[in-house]
Design goal:
The structure holds two protein chains of two kinds.
Chain A: H1 8-36, H2 39-65, H3 71-80, E1 95-98, E2 103-104, E3 108-111, E4 114-117, E5 122-126, E6 134-138, E7 152-160, E8 164-172, E9 175-186, E10 209-216, E11 224-227, E12 234-237, E13 247-248, E14 253-255, E15 262-264
Parallel strand pairs in A: 2-6, 9-11
Antiparallel strand pairs in A: 1-4, 3-4, 5-6, 7-8, 7-10, 8-9, 10-11, 10-12, 13-14, 14-15
Chain B: E1 3-4, E2 8-10, E3 15-17, E4 21-22, E5 26-27, E6 32-33, E7 50-51, E8 55-58, E9 61-64, E10 68-73, E11 77-81, E12 94-103, E13 106-110, E14 117-120, E15 140-147, E16 155-157, E17 169-171, E18 176-179, H1 182-189, H2 194-200, E19 205-209, E20 214-219, H3 222-234, H4 240-252
Parallel strand pairs in B: 7-11, 14-16
Antiparallel strand pairs in B: 1-4, 2-3, 5-10, 6-9, 8-9, 10-11, 12-13, 12-15, 13-14, 15-16, 15-17, 18-20, 19-20
Helix pairs in contact in B: 2-4
Organism (chain B): Oncorhynchus mykiss
Subcellular location (chain B): Cytoplasm; Nucleus, Nucleolus
Keywords (chain B): Cytoplasm, Exosome, Nucleus, RNA-binding, rRNA processing
Chain lengths: ~280, ~260
């Protein structure tokens, strides 16, 4: 740990630092000692100055080997010892390469001609033709796809209400999401015609898989607002009360193959090429 | 009597035994019978069979879901008559509820189901935003369900589709509320109910019967009210004859 992050620049910095501190101490304490005429005290001063410097060096390596989060510790340390603050604002984070080899991307920062990482994650090096490759650090190797306004999402109904239905968004387009986002389908957004005579119980049930479109991202507290007011949107997969998967028979009815009971849903008109036999 | 005869089928992998079921037999959940009418019964053709409560179709078979007695009504309706005391809300049923709390525009009503139903204060006859109905916590209210399913909170109203009360609303100053089984309630509410006719001969009283098993009775004196309540509770497990003898004894004044 002591030698890992050592490099020439740092060594030179510390060497200058030690000389500086020693000179300081000599100048202040030496004046006092001259009057007292004691070799012993001079040796004491020397050793104390060396000790001080070594303490400073050890602290600096400790600070350097820790990551970005302890930058505030570095800041606190700075204010306690103003005389060493010039060179001890050390960067936290692993050193990746020098600026001559790569260009900095996201999650990294530049310091003294070197690129350091500011995140804990994976290093990504992208070659972009004739320019230098771009180096960046990311937490996840795949980027999270967020539902955007106008995107078709696949969601599962969790709870229904006479006024709206709450859903969990599972897929955006054909990409599965790692976390489940929450969405709301209001009563008036269920279908395009006769919006006021919609009954949520006859359109969705808990457990249905629904294709919907995002109309709004919502505020801080509210969920995504979704709509199914198109022919291609609505319930795709639903289970009957007997537990069997139902077969759609019209835009508003589905039938259970076991009990032959019909149930009301707002059924999506799926394009034939997406249907699997 | 319509008899359904089935054969014992033995196959290499499993054994299916179809029992002989007659209308009036006691059946248990899981019993299976298929409708294969023998040719001896000439008046019933292989026609559409309607499954009533307690029966469910499973492919080509009919499964029994509730324990009870198999009943039949011409031409093709079969159902299971079951004893039950726990009420499950159903749409369109009229029930007696007890107001438990008021929150904003909604009353919470206890109907004896798994959750409390909500009743909006605008769902009374002649109620507007300014003219609020006079309903307090603890009142009895006779209302019917407009939303009652397993996925949503049940909702009640005290008006019908035209906006008239039609006998619904708050009631119950005085009188006695008690609980009976759902089967007895259905028998009381049947069009030609013998129990109701026998009771009418005794003495005048007011009665409200809710499909959730709750009955409210009020008569001129407390004693008569209690007599009616006790009679109703006791005639649940009696045959018609036992009931009539009991009523006669009470009417004569021997009890």
């Amino acid at each position: 740990m002591f030698v890992r992050n050592w490099d020439e620049k740092l060594l030179s910095d510390l060497a200058i630092l030690m000389v500086f501190v020693r000179l300081l101490l000599y100048s202040t304490i030496g004046n006092v000692i001259d009057q007292q005429d004691s070799v012993y005290t001079k040796h004491v001063c020397l050793s104390t100055s060396v000790c001080l410097v070594m303490i400073v060096v050890v602290l600096s390596t400790l600070v350097e080997s820790s990551d970005c989060k302890s930058l505030d510790i570095c800041e606190k340390f700075k204010c306690f010892s103003p005389c060493v603050c010039i060179h001890l604002s050390l960067p936290a984070g692993d050193r990746l390469c020098s600026t001559e080899d790569c260009m900095p991307g996201t999650g990294v920062y530049l310091r003294h001609g070197y690129i350091y990482s500011s995140l804990a994650g994976y290093v990504l090096r992208k070659n972009e033709g004739e320019e230098l490759p771009v180096i960046s650090v990311v937490r996840e190797t795949e980027a999270q796809l967020l539902p955007d306004v106008g995107a078709i999402v696949t969601c599962k109904v969790t709870c229904i209400n006479p006024r709206f239905a709450k859903v969990h968004i599972l897929y955006v387009g054909s990409t599965p999401l790692k976390d489940r986002f929450r969405g709301t389908i209001r009563k008036e957004d269920v279908r395009a015609t006769e919006k006021d005579r919609v009954e949520t119980y006859k359109s969705f049930r808990p457990g249905d898989i629904v294709l919907a479109k995002v109309i709004s991202l919502g505020d801080v507290q509210s969920n995504y607002l979704l709509t199914t007011a198109e022919n291609e949107l609505g319930v795709v997969v639903a289970h009957s009360e007997a537990g069997a998967q139902m077969v759609p028979i019209s835009w508003c009815e589905m039938q259970c193959p076991r009990t032959h009971a019909k149930e009301f849903r707002k059924v999506a008109r799926v394009q034939p090429e997406y249907l699997q036999a | 009597m319509v008899c359904l005869f089935d054969c014992v089928i033995l196959s290499c992998f499993y054994v299916i035994i179809h029992l002989v079921y007659k209308v009036g037999d006691v059946l248990l959940p899981g019993d299976v019978f298929s409708f294969q009418m023998p040719e001896s019964i000439t008046d019933s053709k292989p026609e559409k069979v309607v499954c009533g409560p307690g029966l469910r179709r499973n492919g080509d078979e009919v499964l029994v879901c509730k324990s009870g007695i198999l009943r039949h009504k011409q031409p093709n309706l079969y159902w299971i008559d079951s004893q039950q005391r726990r009420y499950v809300p159903g749409k369109g049923e009229s029930v007696i509820g007890i107001i438990t709390s008021k929150s904003g525009d909604i009353f919470k009503v206890d109907v004896g189901g798994s959750e409390q139903a909500s009743l909006s204060y605008l769902a009374f006859e002649g109620a507007t935003k300014r003219n609020r109905p006079n309903v307090q916590v603890g009142d009895l209210v006779y209302s019917q369900f407009i939303i009652a399913n397993k996925d949503m909170e049940p909702e009640l109203v005290c008006i019908d589709s035209c906006g008239r009360a039609n006998g619904m609303g708050v009631f119950g100053a005085g009188g006695l509320l008690f609980k009976v089984s759902l089967g007895l309630v259905r028998r009381l509410l049947a069009p030609q109910s013998e129990i109701a006719k026998d009771l009418e001969k005794m003495f005048p009283f007011e009665i409200v019967v809710g499909m959730n098993g709750r009955v409210w009775v009020k008569s001129k004196t407390i004693q008569q009210t209690l007599i009616v309540a006790n009679l109703l509770e006791s005639c649940e497990n009696m045959t018609a004859q036992q009931r009539q003898t009991l009523f006669r004894r009470v009417a004569d004044g021997s009890i």
